[in-house]
Amino acid sequence: MNSTERLHQLNRKNRLILAAFCAAVVVMAFVCLFVGSSNMTIPQGIAALFGKGSAAQVRIIRGIRIPRVLAALIAGAGLSVSGLIMQTTLNNSMASPSTLGVSNAAVFGANLSIIAFAGGFLSTGNNIQSFDVGANPYATSVLAFVFSTLSVLLILGLCTVRSFSPNVVVLSGMAIGSVWTAATTILQFYATDVGLSAAVVWSFGDLGRATYRTDAIMAAVVLVGLVFFMRMSWKYNALLSGEATAKTMGVDVERLRFVTLLLASLITAVCVSFLGIIGFVGIICPHVTKKLLGQDHRITLPVSCLMGSLLLLLADTGRESPAVLAALLPPADKELLLRAEAALMVGEPADALLESCQGKDSSRWHLLRGEAFFTAKDYEAAATHFTAAENAFPAQALPRLECCYRELGNFQKAYEYAVKQR
């Protein structure tokens, strides 16, 4: 087999892998869109997608699930391609979108917004009005993005003072990241229990925060970055042979590294500021892509994007695994599944808990039902049952009621239940 035939065979293999990943992403997107905890059937979901069916079903599909799926597609692609590019430009297989301390700075910015500016925390006292302002997700996202960008510019500025070598970038990122982590720890030390829990919950990656507006912002930034990376793909291929070789081919290595790291970090900053910390995509997907397809960035860039989207969709579907199992069960068994999950969460054997609830203790039964609906993410129904169990089981019901009303967007009620826990 001559070199031309080998090249055609390689191109055919790459096209097949690219098509396979495209198909897998489409399938998983539909699974995420139509399978969830609302007990909506696939025909009902398809009808709701086109504006038919009940108002609740249309709101679930169009207002919750579509933004969530779009966020998984966009953020997964952005974080994965950022990780791939950083590993290439820094010549470090352990590099990731968090290398420049972007995630650490975003966590500090979010903690500053939640702890220092929201009511009931550091400076504003138990002020419900201030709580509503401080709990504004856009205010938190803006501060997270500002500090992420500041961290990137600070590190890149330090690197341009003397040497812009990969080792200097990595060490500077680790040092600045440690500073942001220390500042976050100090801030959390002075927070109340409610403030601390809210700040910690924010740091968890959550696609449920996505809206059409945040998706549009992330899509614009990721698209600009992807177009730039694709246009520079031949330069990244040259950089794989070493800096000296790349320079002989006309590549301005320092300038390319500066612009690339800045753009990759901005992509990460935007995604993290809206969705929280999602750290595994940017380091896993690039390595798997390079194992499958080699180092040619003309093909690894698009495949890495698809793999990142696929991995985040799989992770989001795994979050709904109880709902996926429930969708496959007959109606009588769905109730049994919810009760079994609730029994595990309450911490007692299922049989003993069910037996103790049958006509003997209505408050205990409401607690069980509340846990079941909370597991299914039906927060309105869960709040109803937890309210009935509030007097008998305050230690279990009050934190759940706070979480339910926070998820429902009723921050005043959430604050009231937070105060009751003190």
Oligomer: single chain
Largest sheet data: none
Helix and strand element order: HHHHHHHHHHHHHHHHHHHHH
Mean pLDDT: 78
Please tally the β strands and state the result.
Answer: 0
Principal-axis shape equals flat
**How would you classify the helix and strand content by structural class?**
mainly alpha
Distance between the termini: 76 Å
- Helix content percent band: over 70%
Total number of helices: 21
What fraction of the residues are assigned to beta strands by DSSP?
Answer: under 5%
| Poorly predicted residue ranges | 119-135, 323-360
Task: Round the Cα radius of gyration to an integer and report it.
Answer: 24 Å
